[in-house]
Design brief:
This protein has 181 residues and is of the alpha+beta class. It contains five helices and eight strands. The chain has an eight-stranded mixed sheet with strand order 1-2-3-4-5-6-8-7, sandwiched between helices. α1 (17-28) packs across α2 (43-54). The longest helix has 14 residues, at 111-124. The model has no long low-confidence stretch (mean pLDDT 91).
Length: 181
C-alpha cells in the first residue's frame, strides 16, 4: 500500500528481522524512542524481539518507507491474543497498533502526522478491521495529541506490566471524520 502526501510517498513492507535489526537498533535505542522501552537493548536483543514477532501469527511488524527509504516502524497485533489480554473486552475487528518514527537529521514538518495517518489507512484497508486499539504510556503527551488528530478517543487508564497506559480506540468512521475535517 502506498500513500502519497504533501511530504512524499509512504509505503510499507514486512519487516525482515535479520536484515533490518541494525537499522531498528539505532531507532529504538535513540533518546527520542524512550517510550519504546528498548533504550538499553543490544543489537541481538532487537533482532531476537523482532524474530519473535515474525514467528507470531498474532503480531506483525512492518517497515515504513518514505520515498523508498526506511523512516518508520509499525506493529499490528491482535489485542485479544497479545498486549491487552485481560485488560479490556475485545470486540470483533479490533486491531492493536504501535508505531515509531525514526529519528531524523532534518525533521520534516507534519511528517509524524502523515505517518500515523498512513498507518491508519493501512490498517483500515483491511475490511475486517473495525476499530484500532492503542495503549501508549500515559506520560506520552505527544502521541496522545497525534492519536486525537486521527480520531482516537481515550477510554481509560490501564496498568500493563511495563507501564501505565491510556487505552484508546478509533473506529473507521472516527478516523474518516478526523482526517476529512
Amino acid at each position: 500500500m502506498s500513500t502519497t502526501t504533501g511530504i512524499g510517498s509512504l509505503t510499507f513492507r514486512p519487516l525482515d528481522p535479520t536484515r533490518d535489526a541494525e537499522l531498528l537498533h539505532g531507532w529504538v535505542t535513540h533518546p527520542k524512542a524512550a517510550f519504546w522501552m528498548m533504550q538499553d537493548a543490544r543489537l541481538e536483543d532487537v533482532e531476537r524481539a523482532y524474530m519473535e514477532i515474525a514467528a507470531d501469527e498474532h503480531h506483525h511488524a512492518y517497515l515504513g518507507l518514505h520515498d523508498g527509504e526506511p523512516a518508520f516502524l509499525m506493529e499490528k497485533y491482535d489485542p485479544a491474543q497479545r498486549e491487552l489480554v485481560g485488560l479490556y473486552e475485545p470486540e470483533p475487528g479490533d486491531v492493536g497498533m504501535h508505531f515509531l518514527v525514526a529519528p531524523a537529521e532534518r525533521p520534516i514538518h507534519g511528517f509524524t502526522r502523515a505517518v500515523i495517518t498512513a498507518v491508519m489507512e493501512f490498517l483500515f484497508a483491511d475490511p475486517a478491521t473495525r476499530r484500532v486499539v492503542v495503549e501508549p504510556d500515559v506520560a506520552n503527551k505527544a502521541v496522545h495529541a497525534l492519536n486525537a488528530a486521527v480520531g482516537f478517543v481515550p477510554e481509560r487508564e490501564i496498568q500493563k506490566p511495563e507501564k501505565k497506559a491510556l487505552l484508546s480506540f478509533c473506529t473507521r468512521e472516527q478516523f474518516e471524520k478526523a482526517v476529512s475535517a
